Every structure is written in structure tokens, then in C-alpha cells.
User: What shape does this take?
Amino acid sequence: MDASSAGEGFTVALASGETVTTRQILLATGMVDELPETVGVRERWGTGVHHCPYCHGWELRDGHIGILAPGGEPFAELRVTLLRGWSSNLTLLTDGSASLDRPARQRLEALGARIDERRLRAYEDGPDGGYRVCFEDGEELPVAGLFVAPSQHQRSGLAETLGCGLDTAEPNPAPFVVIDSTSGETTVSGVYAAGDLTGPAQSVILAAAGGARAAYFMNHALAAADAQAALTAAGLPAGSDGD
Ligand SMILES: Cc1cc2nc3c(=O)[nH]c(=O)nc-3n(C[C@H](O)[C@H](O)[C@H](O)COP(=O)(O)OP(=O)(O)OC[C@H]3O[C@@H](n4cnc5c(N)ncnc54)[C@H](O)[C@@H]3O)c2cc1C
Assistant: This one.
């Protein structure tokens, strides 16, 4: 799929070979999660491996939660911060020596996380619906589930192709599409965006709400433009566009 500006609107080339013209575009193409390479993690994504404490914290409450943060990456402390309300039994797995300085270690430990720097061999199903972290030294650690903080990238290049502004500023872990917080319009007039591609607060209900909000303002803009054209054709001045 490809899209480009065309006069007052846009031309969209579909994978089928068909080309359509449109006055507006709503981008809702989502993000791609870049998962850790550990054997068994990808296969258990969404069942034994999670990223969102708000989506899956309840299921793992009071259980032993593993937090896989290779090297002790920067979002490890945020994961611990968000998960310690669900369980006091947290193990941070760094899969090798962590690049954590002394204050970072002290903070994590004060927040209740154990730090395990052993190299991982695999992540497997365990007994009773649980899971186990398998270390290269042959030992195993039973867990109720594993949390990761995957990096993300835009699933589609459409936003960039259309010239939409992307926010790459810290502390965002990914380049999200910049939108007006009221209308959902991107930095390109007539192009709106909703859902995961607009920011790190990612859930079904937020994505649906973003889509509904954008649709409200897209229709508003189209109706206002059509009304303006009708009034101009009738030789009348534009009225109030209300809401
Ligand atoms: C493992 C996992 C578990 C989750 N659990 C929960 C949960 O329990 N509760 C919750 O609320 N949220 C959960 N989420 C988050 C939720 O799935 C997302 O927030 C939501 O799906 C985002 O919707 P979206 O429409 O923005 O993007 P997506 O759901 O990613 O949809 C984007 C769609 O656009 C399509 N697309 C992309 N590019 C193109 C193109 N060029 N042409 C045509 N189509 C294209 C993609 O194929 C995809 O179908 C979970 C996410 C994951 C990964």
C-alpha cells in the first residue's frame, strides 16, 4: 500500500493494484513489537509472555513474575514500578551481566526486585499452567509469567511517506505519530491517526476511542467544507461551524 497527496486530497494505491482517491486518511496501522531472542519467548507471546501490566497484571497477581530485561535495559525499573502492586515476588532477569550502576541496583532492590544476571537458555511451559525460566547453568526458575518491554517500530511506512511528524523524543521507546490531542489529526492536514501508532498507552479500548474521536473530527471537517462549498455556491457567507 502507498499513499500520496493529490490536490485537495490523497491518492492511495492498494495492494490489489487498485487506486483510490480520498479527501482524508485515518491511519490505524499499529506497531510491531521487537521481542527478545530468548528461545520460547516468541511462541508464548500473549500467553506466558506479556508486556502490559494493565492488561495482564491481574492474571499474574501474587505470583512469581519474571521481568526479562536483557542487560538491565532502561525500562526495567518502570516494569518493576508498575508490577510491584500486583506481586511482591519479582525477579529481574538480565540474561547476562547487567549494565546497571550501583544506584540503579539499589533502586530496583528497594522496590522489591531480585536481580538475576545468569544467562538464559530458554523459556518453557512448566507444571500446573505455569512456566519456567531455564538458565545456561542448568538451573530452572518457576514463574507464573514473564513480562518484557519490547522496542517497537511503526508497522507501516505510510505515516512517514505522507510526511506526518513522528515523535522520537525520550522517554518514548518508539517513534510514534504525532497527533493533535483533541482531533487526532497528524501534522499533515487531512491525515488523522488512532491507536497504538500514536503513543505508548496501548489497549483495545484506547485504540477504539482514538478511532471514534478521529472519526468525529474527520466528519466535522468534511461537513464543514461541504457546507462552505454550498454556501459559496449560493453566494452566501460562511456560517458558524459549531460542533
Ligand atoms: C500480546 C498482546 C496482548 C494484548 N492484550 C491486550 C489486552 O488484554 N487488552 C487490551 O486492551 N489490549 C491488549 N493488547 C493491546 C491491543 O492489542 C492493542 O492496543 C490494539 O490492538 C491496538 O489496535 P490498533 O488498531 O491500533 O493496532 P493493531 O491491532 O496492531 O491493528 C493494526 C492493523 O493494521 C494492519 N496494517 C498495518 N499496515 C497495513 C497496511 N499497509 N495495509 C493494510 N493493513 C495494514 C495490521 O495488519 C493490523 O491488522 C495486547 C497486545 C499484545 C501484542
In short: The chain has two domains: 2-6+21-32+153-233, 36-148. The first strand starts at residue 2 and ends at 6. The two ends are 34 Å apart (CA to CA). The helical segments are 53-56, 76-83, 102-110, 158-161, 204-233.
